[in-house]
Amino acid sequence: MSQPELVLVTGASGYVGSHVVRALLQAGYRVRGSGRGGKIATLRGYFKDQPNFEAVQIDDVGAPDLDLTAVLDGVSAIVHVACPLGGRSLPAVGLRTALEGSQNILKQAVKAGVFKVVLTSTSATALNPDQKRAFAGGIICDKDWGKTSIEDVLKEGNTSLYTYSAYKTLSEQAAWKFAEEHPELDLATINPPFVYGDPIPELLG
Protein backbone atom coordinates (compact mmCIF):
# COMPACT_ATOMS: atom_id res chain seq x y z
CA MET A 1 0.00 0.00 0.00
CA SER A 2 1.38 3.42 -0.94
CA GLN A 3 1.97 6.01 1.75
CA PRO A 4 -0.20 9.14 2.00
CA GLU A 5 1.18 12.27 0.37
CA LEU A 6 3.62 14.33 2.44
CA VAL A 7 2.89 18.04 2.97
CA LEU A 8 5.35 20.58 4.36
CA VAL A 9 3.77 23.19 6.64
CA THR A 10 5.96 26.15 7.57
CA GLY A 11 5.21 27.97 10.80
CA ALA A 12 3.63 24.80 12.15
CA SER A 13 3.84 25.89 15.79
CA GLY A 14 1.87 29.10 15.20
CA TYR A 15 -1.84 29.71 15.68
CA VAL A 16 -2.85 29.13 12.06
CA GLY A 17 -0.06 26.70 11.22
CA SER A 18 -0.87 24.31 14.07
CA HIS A 19 -4.50 24.07 12.95
CA VAL A 20 -3.39 23.48 9.36
CA VAL A 21 -1.21 20.60 10.57
CA ARG A 22 -4.05 19.11 12.56
CA ALA A 23 -6.51 19.41 9.66
CA LEU A 24 -4.09 17.76 7.23
CA LEU A 25 -3.45 14.88 9.62
CA GLN A 26 -7.18 14.40 10.09
CA ALA A 27 -7.56 14.35 6.29
CA GLY A 28 -5.05 11.49 6.08
CA TYR A 29 -1.92 13.29 4.91
CA ARG A 30 1.57 12.93 6.30
CA VAL A 31 2.86 16.26 7.57
CA ARG A 32 6.34 17.66 7.99
CA GLY A 33 5.97 20.77 10.15
CA SER A 34 8.69 23.38 10.47
CA GLY A 35 9.41 25.64 13.40
CA ARG A 36 12.21 27.59 14.98
CA GLY A 37 14.59 25.88 17.37
CA GLY A 38 12.72 26.54 20.61
CA LYS A 39 9.44 25.24 19.18
CA ILE A 40 10.59 21.88 17.82
CA ALA A 41 10.39 20.00 21.11
CA THR A 42 6.94 21.47 21.77
CA LEU A 43 5.72 20.44 18.32
CA ARG A 44 7.04 16.92 18.71
CA GLY A 45 5.52 16.66 22.16
CA TYR A 46 2.07 17.78 21.09
CA PHE A 47 1.93 15.54 18.02
CA LYS A 48 3.79 12.62 19.63
CA ASP A 49 0.84 10.27 19.10
CA GLN A 50 0.65 11.11 15.40
CA PRO A 51 2.88 8.70 13.44
CA ASN A 52 2.28 10.74 10.28
CA PHE A 53 3.83 13.90 11.76
CA GLU A 54 7.46 14.94 11.90
CA ALA A 55 9.00 18.26 12.96
CA VAL A 56 11.94 19.96 11.25
CA GLN A 57 13.85 23.03 12.31
CA ILE A 58 13.96 26.16 10.14
CA ASP A 59 15.20 29.08 12.20
CA ASP A 60 15.09 31.74 9.49
CA VAL A 61 13.02 31.06 6.40
CA GLY A 62 14.31 34.28 4.88
CA ALA A 63 18.01 33.45 5.20
CA PRO A 64 19.89 33.98 1.92
CA ASP A 65 21.78 30.70 2.29
CA LEU A 66 18.74 28.60 3.26
CA ASP A 67 18.93 25.08 1.84
CA LEU A 68 15.68 23.09 1.96
CA THR A 69 16.87 20.10 -0.05
CA ALA A 70 16.50 17.67 2.85
CA VAL A 71 13.33 19.32 4.15
CA LEU A 72 11.61 18.98 0.76
CA ASP A 73 12.69 15.39 0.15
CA GLY A 74 9.55 13.37 -0.58
CA VAL A 75 7.23 16.37 -0.23
CA SER A 76 4.25 16.64 -2.61
CA ALA A 77 2.90 20.04 -1.57
CA ILE A 78 3.72 23.00 0.66
CA VAL A 79 1.55 25.21 2.86
CA HIS A 80 3.63 28.29 3.63
CA VAL A 81 2.23 29.88 6.78
CA ALA A 82 5.33 31.31 8.47
CA CYS A 83 5.37 35.12 8.51
CA PRO A 84 6.49 37.61 11.16
CA LEU A 85 3.89 39.73 12.92
CA GLY A 86 4.24 43.48 12.78
CA GLY A 87 5.88 45.07 15.79
CA ARG A 88 7.84 42.03 16.94
CA SER A 89 11.03 43.00 15.15
CA LEU A 90 12.46 45.95 13.29
CA PRO A 91 10.51 46.52 10.05
CA ALA A 92 13.62 45.86 7.94
CA VAL A 93 14.08 42.47 9.61
CA GLY A 94 10.42 41.51 9.40
CA LEU A 95 10.15 42.56 5.78
CA ARG A 96 13.20 40.51 4.81
CA THR A 97 11.78 37.45 6.55
CA ALA A 98 8.36 37.85 4.93
CA LEU A 99 9.53 38.74 1.43
CA GLU A 100 12.62 36.57 1.14
CA GLY A 101 10.93 33.78 3.07
CA SER A 102 8.18 33.30 0.51
CA GLN A 103 10.68 33.63 -2.33
CA ASN A 104 12.96 31.02 -0.75
CA ILE A 105 10.06 28.60 -0.40
CA LEU A 106 8.95 29.07 -4.01
CA LYS A 107 12.43 28.92 -5.53
CA GLN A 108 13.40 25.79 -3.65
CA ALA A 109 10.02 24.19 -4.27
CA VAL A 110 10.50 24.52 -8.03
CA LYS A 111 14.09 23.31 -7.72
CA ALA A 112 12.90 20.22 -5.83
CA GLY A 113 10.03 19.54 -8.22
CA VAL A 114 7.32 20.46 -5.71
CA PHE A 115 4.81 22.42 -7.76
CA LYS A 116 1.77 22.67 -5.45
CA VAL A 117 2.13 25.57 -3.00
CA VAL A 118 -0.47 27.28 -0.83
CA LEU A 119 0.48 30.67 0.61
CA THR A 120 -1.53 31.92 3.57
CA SER A 121 -2.11 35.62 3.11
CA THR A 122 -4.78 38.10 4.21
CA SER A 123 -7.58 40.16 2.71
CA ALA A 124 -5.52 43.18 3.78
CA THR A 125 -3.44 42.69 0.62
CA ALA A 126 -6.41 44.04 -1.35
CA LEU A 127 -6.46 47.19 0.79
CA ASN A 128 -3.97 49.89 1.58
CA PRO A 129 -2.14 48.94 4.79
CA ASP A 130 -3.97 51.68 6.73
CA GLN A 131 -7.18 49.64 6.14
CA LYS A 132 -9.32 52.77 5.55
CA ARG A 133 -10.73 51.39 2.32
CA ALA A 134 -12.35 48.55 4.23
CA PHE A 135 -14.82 51.04 5.71
CA ALA A 136 -15.35 53.20 2.62
CA GLY A 137 -17.90 51.02 0.83
CA GLY A 138 -17.56 49.53 -2.63
CA ILE A 139 -16.52 46.13 -3.92
CA ILE A 140 -13.10 44.63 -3.27
CA CYS A 141 -12.03 41.67 -5.40
CA ASP A 142 -9.02 39.53 -6.25
CA LYS A 143 -7.80 42.08 -8.79
CA ASP A 144 -7.28 44.73 -6.10
CA TRP A 145 -3.95 45.38 -4.42
CA GLY A 146 -3.03 47.62 -1.53
CA LYS A 147 -0.63 50.42 -2.35
CA THR A 148 2.59 50.15 -0.39
CA SER A 149 6.31 49.90 -0.94
CA ILE A 150 9.47 48.85 0.83
CA GLU A 151 10.15 52.52 1.53
CA ASP A 152 6.72 52.91 3.16
CA VAL A 153 7.32 49.91 5.42
CA LEU A 154 10.62 51.31 6.64
CA LYS A 155 9.19 54.69 7.62
CA GLU A 156 8.98 55.44 11.34
CA GLY A 157 5.61 55.67 13.05
CA ASN A 158 3.78 52.83 11.31
CA THR A 159 1.38 50.76 13.41
CA SER A 160 1.91 47.02 13.82
CA LEU A 161 -1.19 46.39 11.70
CA TYR A 162 0.14 48.62 8.91
CA THR A 163 3.51 46.88 8.97
CA TYR A 164 2.02 43.36 8.95
CA SER A 165 -0.38 44.24 6.11
CA ALA A 166 2.51 45.64 4.09
CA TYR A 167 4.61 42.52 4.74
CA LYS A 168 1.79 40.37 3.40
CA THR A 169 1.06 42.59 0.41
CA LEU A 170 4.64 42.79 -0.79
CA SER A 171 5.35 39.09 -0.24
CA GLU A 172 2.17 37.97 -2.02
CA GLN A 173 2.80 40.28 -4.97
CA ALA A 174 6.31 38.87 -5.30
CA ALA A 175 4.93 35.33 -5.05
CA TRP A 176 2.50 35.86 -7.92
CA LYS A 177 5.22 37.46 -10.01
CA PHE A 178 7.38 34.38 -9.41
CA ALA A 179 4.46 32.12 -10.35
CA GLU A 180 3.97 34.01 -13.62
CA GLU A 181 7.62 33.38 -14.44
CA HIS A 182 7.29 29.67 -13.55
CA PRO A 183 4.07 28.37 -15.15
CA GLU A 184 4.80 24.88 -13.86
CA LEU A 185 4.09 26.17 -10.34
CA ASP A 186 0.52 25.69 -9.09
CA LEU A 187 0.24 28.54 -6.56
CA ALA A 188 -2.85 29.30 -4.48
CA THR A 189 -3.29 31.99 -1.85
CA ILE A 190 -5.78 32.05 1.00
CA ASN A 191 -6.83 35.60 1.96
CA PRO A 192 -9.07 35.55 5.04
CA PRO A 193 -10.28 38.85 6.53
CA PHE A 194 -10.00 37.55 10.08
CA VAL A 195 -8.99 34.31 11.74
CA TYR A 196 -10.49 33.42 15.09
CA GLY A 197 -11.15 30.39 17.25
CA ASP A 198 -9.47 28.40 19.97
CA PRO A 199 -5.69 28.11 19.83
CA ILE A 200 -3.99 24.84 20.65
CA PRO A 201 -3.03 25.57 24.29
CA GLU A 202 0.04 23.35 24.32
CA LEU A 203 1.55 25.36 21.47
CA LEU A 204 1.02 28.79 23.01
CA GLY A 205 4.03 30.81 24.10
Automatic annotation (TrEMBL):
Keyword Oxidoreductase: yes
Entry annotated with the keyword Glycoprotein: no
Pfam families found in the cross-reference section: Epimerase
Annotated GO MF terms: oxidoreductase activity, acting on the CH-OH group of donors, NAD or NADP as acceptor
Domain named NAD-dependent epimerase/dehydratase: residues: 7-198
Highest rank taxon of the organism: Eukaryota
Keywords: Oxidoreductase
PANTHER family: NAD DEPENDENT EPIMERASE/DEHYDRATASE (PTHR10366), STEROL-4-ALPHA-CARBOXYLATE 3-DEHYDROGENASE, DECARBOXYLATING (PTHR10366:SF564)
Family affiliation: Belongs to the NAD(P)-dependent epimerase/dehydratase family. Dihydroflavonol-4-reductase subfamily.
Stated name of the protein: UDP-xylose synthase
Organism (species): Ganoderma boninense
Taxonomic classification: Eukaryota, Fungi, Dikarya, Basidiomycota, Agaricomycotina
